[in-house]
Known about the structure:
Bound molecules: pyridoxal-5'-phosphate
Radius of gyration: 22 Å
Order of helices and strands: HHEHEHEEHEEEEEHHHHEHHEH
Largest sheet: 7 strands, mixed
Structural class: alpha/beta
Number of helices: 12
Amino acid sequence: MNIPFNKPYLAGKELYYIGESVKNGHLSGNGVFTKKCQEFFENRYGFKKCLLTTSCTDALEMCALLLDIKPGDEVIVPSYAFVSTALPFTRQGAKIIFADSRSDRPGVDETSIEELITPKTKAIVVLHYAGVASDMDIIMEIAGKYNIFVVEDAAHAIESFYKGRPLGGIGHLGAFSFHETKNIQCGEGGLLIINDERFTKRAEIIWEKGTNRAAFFRGEIDKYGWVDTGSSFLPSDMIAAFLYGQLENLDKIQQRRLSIWNRYYDTLKKYEDLGIVTLPVIPKFASNNGHIFYLLFSSLGRRSYFIRKMKECGCACSFHYLSLHRSEYYRNLHDGRELVNADRYMDTLVRLPIFYDLAEEEFDYLLKRLDEVLGEMIGEKLVI
Ligand SMILES: *Cc1c(COP(=O)(O)O)cnc(C)c1O
């Protein structure tokens, strides 16, 4: 049996809605389905303003433009993160000050942030790893104290909450991803969430190539033109049509992913009790959205052994980020601080397959193989 790490899921009406969008005759951006998707998020989560983008990376680039990030600025970003968490800010010329992860889970160590702040600090970027919230009260308090902005990279975090508040809706700005590896997907896609009204008007302009076209289409002005910087950040309405087909099924998709996540947890708990692996921790203030199920091993060697053994029986398990402060692009620009937790997750974290279409017999097979491989790793028999 061959079980991939991920399989993009089709909920049913995606292609039908693409057909509808073609029939509408408005194929470019900001059409009927774009509005439907944006309203979905505004209604479901109470977000003040949402703009659909071609990717989460693009939404984060919009954040960097909206915050006027420029050379001389510093932006605090967790090192255990995706390239796009940092890239948009470096592209505007900022220096990235990398923060370490917590010792108990991969999210940023909230208590390590304050000492990284200097008079040049413009923003803190938070990544809610695996959709598990960082402690946003601590982060928002620090940001308020030093008058700096908070951007939530909520790429993993659709339908996840912090003390009941939806992630993406707490910082000044937030960004979701609808890349095909995420819970809700349209191949490539993203969403900018604007929680601070000071940014709303300018966000629409940056979204539409630096023009005030969105206001023109609402009839607020009688001609539109070039008024600011920007780019073409908005996707075709056909992409939005596909995405809408997924959003309609959000509850169903979440239920399935959570049931897989919970069964992994219940089945593998005994290996945590035996000291073979560490399972994910969800703090009391956070919810779980079933985006990632990961295990932590005690060494790189043990993780490599596990991935190889699982692969031999057809099960694709995957490590995750390489610490950004060690990346080829940034290592010579990093200030040299050791980030031991980020490095530990780089070496020891492994993600297990989790996707809607995982069939019951595939899941049974997967769990049996996990029992065999982890069973072999008990005790002193195996030296790695
Ligand atoms: C997937 C991901 C992104 C990038 O999303 P795209 O939509 O592919 O641009 C950014 N940050 C994190 C944490 C991600 O996982």
